[in-house]
Amino acid sequence: MALIKSVRGFTPKIGKDCFIADNATIVGDTTIGDGCSIWFGAVLRGDVNTIAIGNHVNIQDGAVLHTLYQKSTIEIGDYVSVGHNVTIHGAKIEDYALVGMGATVLDGAVVGAGAIVAAGALVLSNTKIGEGELWAGVPAKFIKKVAPEQAKEINQKIAHNYAMYASWYK
């Protein structure tokens, strides 16, 4: 059974029809929308500040979400895919964005709607990634604008597939 823990008077709120893996950890001031999936070994640590996750978001295996005390929060829009072993620290990720496996997104960064952060990328603090842009590298840099059809194929397909995968565990 997942570890869901109150801290400093905050108890996580989890929406309807969510899959929470047995060894996921969800702590404190964390709100998860409807239809989300939080996978094996993921840690959402809302102990020092707020983590707000929209609807139909998948937080994949080993991901860590955390913030800075009294300085940064995490906001994740709808239909966002957060890949395996991603670290998000105090950033905003907008609707249908994709953060690839092993990427790190630091405090104050914004990943625009439909954008892609490539696997292994390091998005530095306060970086603004525009809607539909692909960023990659260490540190992450703009690579190209992603065609709307390509973004739909990649980002939306992954987000919707994860809803299907989660249904296998219910």
Question: What does this protein structure show overall?
Answer:
With 170 residues, this protein is mainly beta. It has one helix and 20 strands. The chain has one helix spanning 148-167, and strands at residues 3-5, 13-14, 19-20, 25-32, 37-38, 43-53, 58-59, 64-66, 74-76, 81-82, 87-89, 92-93, 98-99, 104-105, 110-111, 116-117, 122-123, 128-129, 133-136, 141-145. The strands form two sheets. Strands 1, 2, 4, 6, 8, 9, 11, 12, 14, 15, 17 and 18 form a twelve-stranded parallel beta sheet that branches. An eight-stranded mixed beta sheet has the order 3-5-7-10-13-16-19-20. β19 and β20 form a beta hairpin. The two termini are 13 Å apart.
Write out key terms for the chains shown:
170 residues, mainly beta, twelve-stranded parallel beta sheet, eight-stranded mixed beta sheet, 20 strands, 12% helix, 38% strand
Task: Itemize the secondary structure elements and their pairings.
Blueprint: E1 3-5, E2 13-14, E3 19-20, E4 25-32, E5 37-38, E6 43-53, E7 58-59, E8 64-66, E9 74-76, E10 81-82, E11 87-89, E12 92-93, E13 98-99, E14 104-105, E15 110-111, E16 116-117, E17 122-123, E18 128-129, E19 133-136, E20 141-145, H1 148-167
